[in-house]
Amino acid sequence: MKPVLPWVNSLKEFPSPHHALHDPNGLLAAGGELSVPWLLHAYQQGTFPWFGEGAPLLWWSPDPRGVLWAKDLSISHSLRKTLRQSRYRVFVDSNFADVIRACAQPRAYTAETWISPAMQQAYIDLHAAGYAHSLEVINEQGQLVGGIYGVCLGRMFFGESMFSRVPNASKIALVFLVRRLEQAGCKLIDTQLPNPHLQSLGGSLLPRHEFLRHVHTAMQQPLDMAWSGELHWSELNA
Description:
Elements: E1 7-8, E2 27-31, H1 36-44, E3 48-49, E4 58-60, E5 65-69, H2 77-85, E6 89-92, H3 96-103, H4 117-128, E7 132-138, E8 144-153, E9 156-164, H5 169-183, E10 188-192, H6 196-199, E11 204-206, H7 208-218, E12 230-231, H8 233-236
Parallel strand pairs: 1-2, 9-10
Antiparallel strand pairs: 2-4, 3-4, 5-10, 5-11, 6-7, 6-12, 7-8, 8-9
Helix pairs in contact: 3-4
Protein backbone atom coordinates (compact mmCIF):
# COMPACT_ATOMS: atom_id res chain seq x y z
CA MET A 1 0.00 0.00 0.00
CA LYS A 2 1.29 3.43 -0.94
CA PRO A 3 2.09 5.59 2.13
CA VAL A 4 -0.41 8.35 2.86
CA LEU A 5 0.95 11.86 3.24
CA PRO A 6 -0.36 13.33 6.51
CA TRP A 7 -2.23 16.63 6.42
CA VAL A 8 -1.50 18.68 9.53
CA ASN A 9 -3.76 21.34 11.01
CA SER A 10 -1.94 21.94 14.30
CA LEU A 11 1.62 21.73 15.59
CA LYS A 12 0.60 18.79 17.77
CA GLU A 13 -0.04 16.82 14.58
CA PHE A 14 3.38 17.59 13.07
CA PRO A 15 5.04 14.19 12.41
CA SER A 16 8.58 13.13 13.27
CA PRO A 17 11.04 13.64 10.39
CA HIS A 18 11.86 9.94 10.65
CA HIS A 19 8.43 9.30 9.09
CA ALA A 20 9.24 11.18 5.87
CA LEU A 21 8.56 9.40 2.58
CA HIS A 22 11.27 7.74 0.54
CA ASP A 23 9.60 8.81 -2.72
CA PRO A 24 9.58 11.69 -3.13
CA ASN A 25 12.61 11.73 -0.88
CA GLY A 26 11.95 13.53 2.38
CA LEU A 27 8.35 14.63 1.89
CA LEU A 28 6.96 14.66 5.43
CA ALA A 29 3.60 16.42 5.57
CA ALA A 30 1.25 18.93 3.95
CA GLY A 31 -0.78 21.72 5.48
CA GLY A 32 -0.10 24.00 8.40
CA GLU A 33 0.92 27.63 8.30
CA LEU A 34 3.80 29.78 7.12
CA SER A 35 4.04 31.50 10.49
CA VAL A 36 6.87 32.08 12.95
CA PRO A 37 5.72 29.34 15.40
CA TRP A 38 5.33 26.78 12.62
CA LEU A 39 8.67 27.61 11.00
CA LEU A 40 10.52 27.46 14.31
CA HIS A 41 8.91 24.12 15.15
CA ALA A 42 9.87 22.74 11.75
CA TYR A 43 13.49 23.89 11.84
CA GLN A 44 13.93 22.54 15.35
CA GLN A 45 13.07 19.15 13.84
CA GLY A 46 15.35 19.55 10.83
CA THR A 47 12.37 20.13 8.54
CA PHE A 48 11.79 22.93 6.03
CA PRO A 49 8.93 24.21 3.80
CA TRP A 50 9.25 23.86 0.05
CA PHE A 51 6.40 24.06 -2.45
CA GLY A 52 5.50 25.65 -5.76
CA GLU A 53 3.16 28.55 -6.41
CA GLY A 54 -0.44 27.37 -6.11
CA ALA A 55 0.52 24.05 -4.47
CA PRO A 56 -0.30 23.14 -0.86
CA LEU A 57 2.25 23.91 1.83
CA LEU A 58 4.68 20.96 1.94
CA TRP A 59 7.28 20.08 4.61
CA TRP A 60 10.48 18.16 3.86
CA SER A 61 13.30 16.32 5.63
CA PRO A 62 15.37 14.52 2.96
CA ASP A 63 17.72 11.60 3.57
CA PRO A 64 20.60 12.08 3.06
CA ARG A 65 20.82 15.78 3.83
CA GLY A 66 22.93 18.32 2.00
CA VAL A 67 25.36 19.96 4.42
CA LEU A 68 28.52 22.03 4.51
CA TRP A 69 30.96 21.44 7.33
CA ALA A 70 32.73 24.72 8.08
CA LYS A 71 36.09 22.94 8.19
CA ASP A 72 35.51 21.58 4.67
CA LEU A 73 34.85 24.95 3.03
CA SER A 74 36.75 24.96 -0.26
CA ILE A 75 37.89 28.31 -1.65
CA SER A 76 39.39 28.26 -5.14
CA HIS A 77 42.52 30.21 -6.01
CA SER A 78 40.56 32.63 -8.19
CA LEU A 79 37.97 33.22 -5.46
CA ARG A 80 40.71 33.86 -2.89
CA LYS A 81 42.17 36.44 -5.26
CA THR A 82 38.79 38.17 -5.51
CA LEU A 83 38.42 38.15 -1.72
CA ARG A 84 41.87 39.71 -1.25
CA GLN A 85 41.11 42.47 -3.75
CA SER A 86 38.34 43.78 -1.47
CA ARG A 87 36.26 45.02 -4.40
CA TYR A 88 33.09 44.23 -2.48
CA ARG A 89 31.83 45.07 0.98
CA VAL A 90 29.86 42.50 2.96
CA PHE A 91 27.23 43.41 5.54
CA VAL A 92 25.08 41.41 7.95
CA ASP A 93 21.31 41.92 8.14
CA SER A 94 21.50 45.31 6.44
CA ASN A 95 18.72 44.58 3.93
CA PHE A 96 17.07 41.21 4.51
CA ALA A 97 13.96 42.01 2.46
CA ASP A 98 15.91 42.91 -0.67
CA VAL A 99 18.03 39.76 -0.37
CA ILE A 100 15.05 37.41 -0.20
CA ARG A 101 13.31 39.26 -3.03
CA ALA A 102 16.44 38.93 -5.16
CA CYS A 103 16.64 35.22 -4.34
CA ALA A 104 13.03 34.89 -5.49
CA GLN A 105 13.77 36.21 -8.98
CA PRO A 106 13.65 33.60 -11.78
CA ARG A 107 17.01 32.09 -12.69
CA ALA A 108 18.45 31.80 -16.20
CA TYR A 109 17.61 28.08 -16.31
CA THR A 110 13.98 28.34 -15.11
CA ALA A 111 11.15 30.84 -14.93
CA GLU A 112 9.76 29.21 -11.79
CA THR A 113 10.52 30.15 -8.20
CA TRP A 114 9.55 28.46 -4.94
CA ILE A 115 10.08 31.68 -2.96
CA SER A 116 6.54 32.97 -3.40
CA PRO A 117 5.32 36.29 -1.97
CA ALA A 118 3.83 34.35 0.96
CA MET A 119 7.16 32.60 1.56
CA GLN A 120 9.00 35.93 1.38
CA GLN A 121 6.71 37.50 3.97
CA ALA A 122 7.02 34.48 6.26
CA TYR A 123 10.81 34.81 6.38
CA ILE A 124 10.65 38.59 6.69
CA ASP A 125 8.50 37.97 9.77
CA LEU A 126 11.02 35.38 10.99
CA HIS A 127 13.77 37.95 10.47
CA ALA A 128 11.83 40.53 12.48
CA ALA A 129 11.55 37.94 15.26
CA GLY A 130 15.34 37.55 15.28
CA TYR A 131 15.71 34.09 13.71
CA ALA A 132 16.26 34.67 9.98
CA HIS A 133 19.38 36.48 8.79
CA SER A 134 21.11 37.63 5.64
CA LEU A 135 24.45 38.71 4.27
CA GLU A 136 24.64 41.41 1.61
CA VAL A 137 27.44 41.83 -0.95
CA ILE A 138 27.77 45.45 -2.10
CA ASN A 139 29.84 46.68 -5.05
CA GLU A 140 31.87 49.89 -5.31
CA GLN A 141 28.80 51.75 -6.57
CA GLY A 142 26.82 50.79 -3.47
CA GLN A 143 24.63 48.28 -5.32
CA LEU A 144 23.45 44.96 -3.90
CA VAL A 145 25.04 42.35 -6.18
CA GLY A 146 24.84 39.17 -4.12
CA GLY A 147 23.58 37.71 -0.90
CA ILE A 148 22.40 34.76 1.12
CA TYR A 149 19.75 34.19 3.77
CA GLY A 150 18.75 31.47 6.19
CA VAL A 151 17.64 30.62 9.70
CA CYS A 152 19.88 30.43 12.76
CA LEU A 153 18.92 28.55 15.92
CA GLY A 154 21.68 28.18 18.48
CA ARG A 155 24.82 27.00 16.69
CA MET A 156 22.89 25.67 13.71
CA PHE A 157 22.46 27.64 10.50
CA PHE A 158 19.89 26.47 7.97
CA GLY A 159 20.73 27.95 4.58
CA GLU A 160 17.74 28.82 2.40
CA SER A 161 18.86 30.54 -0.79
CA MET A 162 21.45 32.84 -2.30
CA PHE A 163 21.75 34.98 -5.41
CA SER A 164 24.36 36.62 -7.58
CA ARG A 165 24.13 39.51 -10.03
CA VAL A 166 27.85 39.45 -10.84
CA PRO A 167 30.27 36.50 -11.00
CA ASN A 168 31.15 34.98 -7.60
CA ALA A 169 28.96 37.31 -5.51
CA SER A 170 26.92 34.46 -4.01
CA LYS A 171 30.13 32.52 -3.32
CA ILE A 172 31.54 35.56 -1.52
CA ALA A 173 28.41 35.75 0.63
CA LEU A 174 28.60 32.04 1.49
CA VAL A 175 32.33 32.11 2.27
CA PHE A 176 31.94 35.13 4.56
CA LEU A 177 28.96 33.50 6.28
CA VAL A 178 30.68 30.17 6.85
CA ARG A 179 33.89 31.74 8.15
CA ARG A 180 31.99 34.05 10.52
CA LEU A 181 29.79 31.21 11.77
CA GLU A 182 32.85 29.05 12.33
CA GLN A 183 34.43 31.79 14.44
CA ALA A 184 31.24 31.86 16.53
CA GLY A 185 31.25 28.11 17.13
CA CYS A 186 28.96 26.85 14.35
CA LYS A 187 30.44 23.75 12.73
CA LEU A 188 27.69 22.69 10.32
CA ILE A 189 25.54 24.55 7.80
CA ASP A 190 22.40 22.92 6.41
CA THR A 191 22.18 23.22 2.63
CA GLN A 192 19.04 21.05 2.37
CA LEU A 193 19.69 19.43 -1.01
CA PRO A 194 22.99 18.78 -2.80
CA ASN A 195 23.90 20.63 -5.97
CA PRO A 196 27.12 21.06 -8.01
CA HIS A 197 27.54 24.70 -6.92
CA LEU A 198 27.63 23.80 -3.22
CA GLN A 199 29.69 20.67 -3.80
CA SER A 200 32.36 22.80 -5.48
CA LEU A 201 32.57 24.77 -2.22
CA GLY A 202 32.93 21.68 -0.04
CA GLY A 203 29.33 20.55 0.38
CA SER A 204 28.64 16.92 1.25
CA LEU A 205 25.86 14.56 2.34
CA LEU A 206 24.91 13.42 5.82
CA PRO A 207 22.47 10.63 6.75
CA ARG A 208 19.30 12.11 8.19
CA HIS A 209 19.67 10.48 11.61
CA GLU A 210 23.16 11.97 11.99
CA PHE A 211 21.97 15.35 10.78
CA LEU A 212 19.08 15.39 13.25
CA ARG A 213 21.36 14.41 16.10
CA HIS A 214 23.68 17.28 15.28
CA VAL A 215 20.76 19.71 14.99
CA HIS A 216 19.47 18.73 18.42
CA THR A 217 22.89 19.26 20.02
CA ALA A 218 23.78 22.47 18.17
CA MET A 219 20.52 24.21 19.01
CA GLN A 220 21.19 23.82 22.73
CA GLN A 221 24.41 25.82 22.42
CA PRO A 222 24.51 29.64 22.26
CA LEU A 223 26.06 31.29 19.22
CA ASP A 224 28.55 34.05 20.01
CA MET A 225 27.73 36.25 17.05
CA ALA A 226 26.18 39.67 16.53
CA TRP A 227 23.92 39.78 13.48
CA SER A 228 24.83 43.29 12.39
CA GLY A 229 27.60 45.41 10.95
CA GLU A 230 30.20 44.91 8.24
CA LEU A 231 32.45 41.87 7.86
CA HIS A 232 36.08 42.12 6.75
CA TRP A 233 37.97 39.33 5.01
CA SER A 234 41.18 40.15 6.88
CA GLU A 235 39.41 39.33 10.15
CA LEU A 236 37.88 36.10 8.82
CA ASN A 237 40.99 34.75 7.11
CA ALA A 238 43.25 34.71 10.17
